[in-house]
Amino acid sequence: SLPAFLHNFMGSRQQVQVADVEAALEPLVQRAVWEFVGQLSIEDLVQEGIARRMADQVDTSLQAAFSRYGLNFVDIQIVEARHEKFDELQQKTGEAWLIRRGIEQQAALDEVYSEQERMRLYQQEREHELRVLAAQVETDALRKRLSARLDRIDVQNQIRETLNSEKLARLESREQLKNELLELDRKRLLRKEELDELVEGFKQRKEDRGTAREAVVAIASLQRGRELEELREEIDHASRLKAVEHEIALAKTCATRDNEAWQRELEREAAEAEHRRTERRKKLEEQWQLVGERNEHRRLEDWQDVVHQQRVQQTENELEVARAETARRVALLERETSRQSSDDQMDRMARLQELNAARDRQLAELAERRADGESTRELRKLEIMGGMNAKALIATANVDNAALLASVEQQEAKSAADTDRQQLYERLTEAERAKADAIAATFREAMQFQQQTVDQVIQSGRNGNPGSGAAAPPPPAVETRWWVSEGGQPTGPFSLAELQSQAASGRLTSSTWLCAAGENAWRTAAEAVPQVLQHTPPPPFSAGQPAG
After folding, report:
1. Which pTM value belongs to this model?
2. What are 142-148's contacts with CB under 8 Å, separation 24+?
3. Residue 74 half-sphere exposure, CB side, CA atoms within 13 Å?
4. Strand order, beta sheet including 482-486
5. pLDDT tens across 384-437, in order?
6. Domain boundaries in the chain?
7. Of 441, 444, 528, nearest in space to 483 by CA
8. DSSP code of 547?
9. Domain 482-533, what fold?
């Protein structure tokens, strides 16, 4: 699964290359393939359906290791099994079958030859597998041990070929055979006990050279088989430990609690595998020693039984250990998966709470920013509206605010009109007072003039001047003066002559408001002074009017 891959494989790494994944998983796959191949011969590997069997066993072997890293084994695409002598063996087997059909004796000889050749090829195949397995092991100390064992096997092969040749017929004594064996083993790779077994077998059967040859060759073959089994076991053990060490190194790449528990489990498996190997070798040495102590005529049969029992026991032990390790790994993986599921659920809940808290903070910050923005816009709007006139405010406001502003504007206009009217009335009052004063002054002047006239008449009568009794001239008439409204402000007062002059200049029209001095009513000029407008010149001629 993806959480297991991210948690146990990637860890704190941001990315993983495909090459890194291949390098990490290739040793595990190789180990599983080698375990399967090591159980079969070349004949079994070329049979039909072997790829499916290999894929199933590899999948079973890798299931526990791959599952904890969130990986799945899919399939094996290509399997190539070859041996340089296998085709030749098949051809010779067919030839032997054809010859056996014609000649019984020749067929029997060919069958024996083919069987010996098959056994030789089988041994070569096993040696080749061991060499390939040895190439997979990178430990220098192990390489040295494997190299020494391979050299021992080469010496044993030379001894076996020598014993199968005509050289054995020329040997007459134990000393000659021992010298021949020491000549072949110049590096002294074989143990003294092994050489003594060969010499002893030759000594007891030297009278019958055929029986002696068979006995010595059988002993050499058993020794070589024993060496091959021990070498194979050592290589398998080293390969298994290497795979475990690789898994430990892979678990160390991510320092998590689950990986640490898995690392301890792998270290325990490695220690148990080492202990089982030590006990198995100790038991095997005891069996070989017991066989060596038995009488001579049963030694070969006992050796063969020991080899067979060793193989059966080794296979059973490996299967039992593999089943136990698989069960233990599966149980550990299930516990780890359950714990990870619980931890993941808690992590999801904590993460969800963090996301909800972050969302609440963001919403609060967004609301605060929105409120700040609205306040800033309102302040800016008020600042701009402060420099606008009433008409602009009404035009830019909404319906309710426009109605409110219009009513305020109407109230202000009404107040201004009332103020103007009051000021006009005050000015008119002052004009009336001035007019009354002027009339009073005129009346006093008239009275004084009349009194002077009367006095003159009386004086003339007294002096006897009848001609001077003519009537006195009437007092001058008082002229009405007018107030004119210009731009809402009263101006004047003006006489009729002055109004005539304003009408001639166009300042006074029929719609101009006038108020007579001493009155409180305003009238248009057409109503108040029509005689003045009669002398108003016509408007100027325009190009669009028809001629007189």
Report:
1. 0.38
2. 142/234, 142/238, 145/234, 146/231, 146/234, 146/235, 148/189
3. 2
4. 489-494, 482-486, 513-516, 523-524
5. 877 776 666 666 666 666 677 677 777 877 787 778 777 777 776 766 666 766
6. 2-174+222-350, 406-469, 482-533
7. 528
8. P
9. Dna Ligase; domain 1 (3.30.1490)
